[in-house]
Amino acid sequence: MVSGVPTRTSDRTAEPEPYDFARPTRLPREQSAELLRSMDSFAKSWATELSAKLRAECHVTVTGVSLLPYEEYVESLPESAAMVLLTMDAVLARGIMQFPLQDSLGWAERMLGGAGGRDVPERPFSPIEQAVVTKVVTGALATMAYSLGASFPHNMKVDRIEYTPQAAKAAGPQDATIITSLELTVDDATSRITFALPADALARDAEESAHVGDGEPLDLMLSHLSGVPVRVSLQFQPTRVRPEVVLALAEGDLIRMTHSKNRPLNFAVEGQIMAKAAVGASGSQLACVIVDTQETP
Hints:
By secondary structure, the chain is an alpha+beta fold. It has helices spanning 29-54, 70-75, 101-111, 127-148, 165-168, 199-210, 217-225, 243-247; strands at residues 58-69, 82-88, 91-99, 157-162, 176-186, 189-198, 232-235, 265-269, 272-282, 285-292. It has 2 domains: 29-210, CheC-like (Chemotaxis protein chec), CATH 3.40.1550; 230-243 and 256-297, no CATH class. The longest helix has 26 residues, at 29-54.
């Protein structure tokens, strides 16, 4: 035997392991990258929503996306947690949004006008707290649906709340589950949040997209373009200033705009003006109200 050279032993035979293509052990690279991009977009939007609801500075960071059997996912969770079970169309298994129970009690206290300390004893939600937490999760699902687009399962909504992960039984022990891990920082306190989605839900959406009929090329192109995200913006009428004014700008300086305060703003899509809009609000967020849909030349 030559040292350093591996030898083949006859008594060590590798047994083949069955591979279930319906439940792969790894998330495809393209799908994982797309999910990360979509969830990063969700994290930024949700942090803004939570900052308004919790009356505190909030940051949400995506720490990873993985594919695990449901049983393995549950084993990674603490003995007690807030487990919000989610239903969706055409899938029997439940989705899950999980966060630390003690932290979520503090969030509910903040939303009800309290200080939201982290020393709140762990206990089930009161009816009022459960309504508040359900509202937070419902808002998160709406934001996530916007960020994920067509890949987000249809009609996802809150089913019930469990407090023991092992008792939730949202799916079968070996069901493939896509786990998105997030970190939520409220002021200086950080909480680990997970969003679990049955892999069948995304696989079903991908299969439906793959079986689009062989229609006319124009119809197929329009169907794809309708799902492409675009950037929209509200714009003032342009104002001309001299270069010396721009170069001399300092904090606190004012620039007089030629746009009248009673005149609607330009609603632009990817820089192209498409309509006129007035500034409005939707809940705690700024919004715009379209007042003229005629395209500006």
